Amino acid sequence: MDAERALFVFDTTNAVLWAEDVAREADIPCDVVPAPSDAGAGCDLALVTVGPRAEELAAALASAAVPFGRWPRSGR
Length: 76
Known about the structure:
By secondary structure, the protein is of the alpha+beta class. The protein has a single domain (5-71), classed as Alpha-Beta Plaits. The protein contains 2 helices and 4 strands; from the N terminus they run E-H-E-E-H-E. The protein has helices at 13-25, 54-63; strands spanning 5-9, 31-34, 45-50, 69-71. The chain is globular.
């Protein structure tokens, strides 16, 4: 993965695995990684992608109705 990364967090393991499938189908590079302890996610897993592809991944997840959050959250 690139040094500039974007982290997506989820409330369930099912959601992170679904998100990984959506990313791969859209040919967006990603890895499942441990979620940061202070991310406040309901799941201990997160999805990381290269920063330049983050908005594309967010749009793909939203289009597929995958519930997700971004970390760090805005306003922190």
